[in-house]
Amino acid sequence: MIQLTNIDFGYSKKRLLFKNLTLELSRGHIYGLLGKNGAGKTTLLKLISGLRFISNGSALVFNENPALRKPNMLQELYFLPEELYTPALKTDEFIEAYAPFYPNFNREQFQEYLNVFEVPYQHLKIHKMSFGEKKKVMIAFALACNTKILIMDEPTNALDIPSKAIFRKVMASVATEDRIVVISTHQVRDLHSLIDAIIILDSGKIILNESAESITEKLSFEVMENTENATNILYEEDNVRGKVVVRENSAQKETKLDIELLFNAVMLNKEKIQHIFNPKK
Predict the structure, then answer these.
(1) pTM for the complete prediction?
(2) Which of the chain's ends, N or C, has fewer CB atoms near its CB within 10 Å?
(3) Which residues of the chain have pLDDT under 70?
């Protein structure tokens, strides 16, 4: 449903953020988009949503150019930005104003999500709520729109620990085979059990785009007392139990994916890891 092919984009003509970037996202996945600050994560999400316009290449969402912002595309795509605009409306007034743009919006689901997130003071206007409560309201609305593409930029920012656990549970319940969810985040531990495919963006380039299953097939994540005689180590760091390592899974061990360790390993050994996943390139 999302295809970017050899796209170029820059905020100035002299300096491109993306050059010949290609990315295809398919339904039935919750993608985690990871990268350092300034890597281009938010810009990439805005290109998909039609809020920024490519200068070269091809961008297709539902086989439409997202830059045209056609109603049939927009009604099936919801983008929840990190920086929220919250109007001076109560939640029921907000629904009346914005829900008509999304034909699959479900009022009962919206109220259920508000209740699950324990949003108090629903009689208040949204802009007078705390940032955390605003975030919960907007997450609830995004989910209740039931769009086929749901894009979230740092959704767990400002959520407290119990709310982050609720977020993971709710997101797992809305994932379906005909839906694409893309979550950009720095807080990988908040979404560890939720993400089933990982995209890592660095300096305007996609250096990894793999399913969790593929990653644990090619890489192992282990705790070792020492690494003196260990081979194929791509990354290691000290841990209270010894050393945690990422290495090439030549022994075909079954280990649990650690997204934070994966990210650090990719940043340290980009070329080696790219070769592991794409040996022909």
Answers:
(1) 0.92
(2) C
(3) 281
